Inverse folding.
């Protein structure tokens, strides 16, 4: 079995079509006339633009407007005055157009590849596509187009160029395998948009398969099985059917409103860790972002991200969702989230130590920088601020004071921000739960963090396998805590969200509906599943189930009963 990165879900079974690595050779000939060579170069650009425009239209029609944007980007890039000037000046020095294009594009490629940032690296792939395309035009080489591939084809290539992908359709291509490219590459965007299973970054893919081989592409797990035996073939054929059935069922919930079976409206948000993930959340028709975990930005770098870097990331996310809520959680480090360069002292009990808001309130500079970045981005959408691991009122008051300081600093530097930024807190400690009525008077919303709430109520380390049998949000104590938090929030007239993993658990959903939870925030992968599960429960049914659960004494009894009820109403897919 070969392994790669599964970038487009599903199972494809078909016949291999190998696209050999394209080697473009040319002679560095002596040019006759500089003017003529420059004219040749600009003629190639003209042809490139016409061809790319046609491909973009084709992709827009097959996959969607958004997916064609990369190609419109190529049209802008190829006309970049700096790039054109550099190429022209090489030609003026007597070099042929092929050599000039190749040299200058290569220097851009190495510049973009050397930056430690995935989006900038993607620019290198864009320039490589442009270079190959221009050279093919200059040399009169016909480019490969997959439009005419026979039905049931699995494409195996080094990388898929835009010209190849523009011809792809899910009628003839049932799987994509490449040696290069990652989750954000052009190939994976197109594969996802067309619903074609794809596995990228497969080492030696070209050597391991030949034309005509039967191959299974498992895009959900990143597995490739070449020439499967009969049993494996049958096993995967069944898996494929199950997957298609499930996908068709879930697709009914795309772009739908989130409602219970009897029409009570809920809001369904996504949990994300970057602006890139916000795009995924948008794709699965989330109604906003219920939790933006900002730690990733700090973890990915070897230093604290600057105010401008953070601002750009929050702004991108706000713009992705425009008028829909984006709840940005302030830095939640400590516990299991260690950032080496912050030099937090090693603690005996890190989960009970210098974590999250406790750390931020002590590190004024880091905290104010993040608050200013969030405030500045708030004018671009409906950003709300969320504080993790609150245990007492004093912390909320201290945060409010810090927000005032950040606002004053922005006023002094004449930067705009939303004056009425909403502030909410995560309820994820027993203390916050016990004083939820008091805290509700201080804030605009609650978000229940069941991952930590379960850990702290049950006194069980969420990462310790030895005690994991105790780690369950279905323990009567956690269920009562959830009910209490929602009641306190509603009594004070504020909305209550859940952003812990329990929000997407099909067994927890009836309880949350019965308790009146307003907003569910879940990972992108389970958004449609959660919308579907909510739609299966009427409030009347959920209330009877919740009443029975509240009388039960053990976690086992509760889980078994909820399973039975969920199966009876189709709440589990
Ligand atoms: C939680 O604790 O439930 C939560 C959502 O936060 P995290 O998992 O990031 O601690
Ligand atoms: Mg938490």
């Amino acid at each position: 079995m070969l392994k790669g990165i599964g970038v487009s879900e599903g199972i494809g079974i078909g016949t291999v079509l190998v696209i050999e690595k394209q080697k473009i050779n040319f002679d560095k000939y002596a040019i006759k006339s500089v003017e003529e060579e420059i004219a040749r170069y600009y003629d190639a650009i003209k042809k490139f633009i016409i061809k790319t425009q046609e491909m973009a239209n084709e992709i827009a029609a097959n996959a969607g407007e958004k997916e064609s944007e990369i190609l419109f980007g190529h049209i802008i890039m190829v006309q970049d005055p700096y790039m054109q000037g550099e190429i022209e000046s090489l030609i003026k020095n007597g070099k042929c157009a092929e050599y000039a294009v190749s040299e200058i594009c290569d220097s851009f490629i190495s510049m973009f590849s050397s930056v430690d940032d995935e989006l900038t690296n993607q620019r290198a792939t864009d320039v490589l596509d442009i270079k190959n395309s221009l050279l093919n035009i200059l040399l009169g080489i016909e480019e490969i187009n997959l439009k005419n591939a026979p039905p049931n084809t699995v494409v195996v290539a080094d990388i898929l160029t835009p010209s190849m992908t523009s011809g792809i359709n899910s009628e003839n291509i049932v799987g994509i395998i490449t040696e290069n490219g990652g989750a954000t590459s052009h190939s994976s965007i197109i594969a996802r948009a067309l619903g074609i299973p794809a596995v990228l970054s497969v080492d030696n893919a070209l050597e391991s398969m030949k034309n005509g081989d039967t191959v299974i592409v498992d895009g959900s797990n990143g597995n490739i099985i070449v020439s499967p035996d009969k049993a494996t073939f049958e096993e995967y054929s069944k898996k494929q059917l199950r997957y298609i059935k499930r996908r068709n069922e879930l697709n009914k919930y795309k772009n739908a409103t989130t409602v219970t079976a009897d029409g009570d409206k809920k809001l369904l948000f996504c949990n994300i860790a970057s602006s890139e993930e916000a795009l995924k959340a948008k794709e699965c028709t989330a109604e906003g972002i219920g939790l933006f975990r900002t730690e990733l930005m700090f973890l990915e770098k070897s230093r604290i991200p600057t105010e401008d870097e953070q601002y750009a990331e929050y702004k991108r996310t706000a713009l992705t969702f425009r008028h829909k809520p984006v709840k940005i959680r302030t830095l939640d480090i400590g516990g299991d989230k260690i950032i080496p360069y912050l030099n937090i002292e090693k603690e005996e009990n890190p989960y009970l130590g210098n974590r999250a808001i406790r750390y931020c309130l002590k590190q004024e500079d880091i905290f104010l920088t993040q608050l200013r970045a969030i405030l500045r981005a708030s004018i671009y959408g409906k950003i709300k601020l969320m504080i993790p691991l609150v245990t007492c009122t004093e912390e909320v008051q201290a945060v409010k004071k810090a927000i005032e300081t950040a606002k004053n600093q922005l006023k002094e530097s004449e930067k705009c921000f939303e004056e009425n930024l909403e502030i909410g807190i995560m309820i994820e400690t027993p203390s916050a739960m016990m004083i939820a009525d008091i805290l509700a008077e201080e804030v605009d919303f609650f978000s229940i963090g069941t991952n930590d709430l379960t850990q702290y109520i049950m006194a069980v380390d969420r990462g310790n396998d030895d005690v994991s049998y105790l780690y369950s949000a279905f323990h009567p104590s956690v269920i009562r805590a959830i009910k209490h938090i929602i009641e306190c929030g509603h009594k004070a007239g504020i909305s209550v969200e859940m952003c812990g993993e329990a929000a997407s658990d099909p067994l927890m959903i009836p309880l949350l509906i019965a308790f009146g939870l307003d907003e569910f925030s879940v990972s992108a992968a389970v958004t449609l599943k959660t919308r579907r599960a909510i739609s299966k429960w009427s409030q009347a049914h959920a209330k009877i189930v919740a009443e029975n659960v509240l009388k039960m004494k053990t976690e086992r009894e509760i889980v078994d009963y909820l399973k039975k009820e969920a199966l009876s109403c189709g709440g589990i897919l």
In short: The chain is about 50% helix and 15% strand. The CA atoms of residues 10 and 243 lie 6 Å apart. The chain has a mean pLDDT of 93.
